[in-house]
Amino acid sequence: MPHSIDDLFENFRLELRRGCLVLAVLAQLQTEHYGYMLRKSLSSKGLEIDEGTLYPLLRRLETQGLLVSEWREEDRRNKRFYRVSPEGETILARLLEEWRGINSSVDRMLSPLERMEV
Amino acid sequence: MDLLERYLQAAKPLLPRKVQGDILRELSENIRCQMEEKEAELGRPLTDAEQEEVIKHHGHPIVVAARYRRPQYLIGPAVFPFYWLILRIAAASALIVRLVVEVVTALLSPDPTHAILPALLAVPWVLVPVFFWITAAFAAFEICSSFVSMNWKTSWSPRSLPVMGTPARTVTRTESVALIIFGAAAIVW
């Protein structure tokens, strides 16, 4: 099937983002948040994420034991607060190491090219 | 908030039953928070159109509900090419066997000219049980392999692959074709 360059880019972009979103969510949930507040705080740091992606992701990470959650009242409303679990902390540290490793490898590959362009 | 209730109601039957109440409560709370914040910003209640926009941004209920489930499939990508190969061989063999059987039976009947057309029309129906049983068998294999840790993907060695030039592949294919013809014959009878 022929793909337009935009479709291809979109597929690769989503693939690339998927893992990074887990990283971002684990990092941000080192302090406690409920769903909508988490979305806002991620977006205020420049990472936009759809509700339809974020809320199921929180559930999945909780099922996998990387997050813990509890229903609690805030502003006379019940909300489900999430926070990273000790297992989540471990995974976050290891993922960060991996992510930084990949970043610096790619940077090393690109830097000669960029020098040539300059 | 009528629109929100309808949205949640549409997603409900598609969610895993054990957690559906909990998921909907959380989803509803998150959407309400978002709407209230927007109301506070505007200093007035949201119009229907504005509510609709907030809800619409969350995605179609079917899509949203699907994201709360694990990916579901009957036959996984690792097994699918093998399934497809077997299915094609079995379908072709079953059609041939059934065709021969039907034609011979019709020719041997007292009135071959009247018997031949219904006999030919009956042939394609053999595909239904072939498709059903092969799919069922592969689906069963897929389900079992997700419960039992299957080590065939990791415990192989390049040394165990067929040697170049030996007819290993043709032999196995002939064997499987023979097996399937007998299987198909069994279905036909």
Notes on the structure:
The complex is a heterodimer of chains A (118) and B (189). Helices cover 67% and strands 15% of the residues of chain A. Chain A is built from four helices and three strands, in the order αβααββα. In chain A, strands 1-3-2 form a three-stranded antiparallel β-sheet. Chain A starts with a helix and ends with a helix. Chain B has 189 residues and is an all-alpha fold. Helices cover 70% and strands 0% of the residues of chain B. Chain B contains eight helices and no strands. In chain B, α1 packs across α4 (61-67) and α5 (80-108) packs antiparallel against α6. Chain B is elongated. The chains are: A alpha+beta (118), B mainly alpha (189).
How large is the count of helical segments of chain A? 4
Total DSSP E strands of chain B = 0
Termini separation of chain B comes to 62 Å
Helix and strand succession of chain A? HEHHEEH
Question: How does the overall form of chain B come out from the CA principal axes?
Answer: elongated
Low-confidence stretches of chain B: none
Structural class of chain B: mainly alpha
Taken in chain order, the helices and strands of chain B follow as HHHHHHHH
What is the strand arrangement across the widest sheet of chain A? 1-3-2
Question: Which radius of gyration of chain A do the C-alpha atoms yield?
Answer: 18 Å
Distance between the termini of chain A: 38 Å
Total beta strand runs of chain A:
3
Q: Helical amount among residues of chain B, as a percent range?
A: 55-70%
Largest sheet of chain B: none
Largest interface, counted with CB-CB under 8 A? A-B, 15 and 17 residues
The coarse overall form of chain A would be: globular
Short description:
In chain A, 67% of the residues lie in helices and 15% in strands. Chain A contains 4 helices and 3 strands, in the order H-E-H-H-E-E-H. The mean pLDDT of chain A is 89.
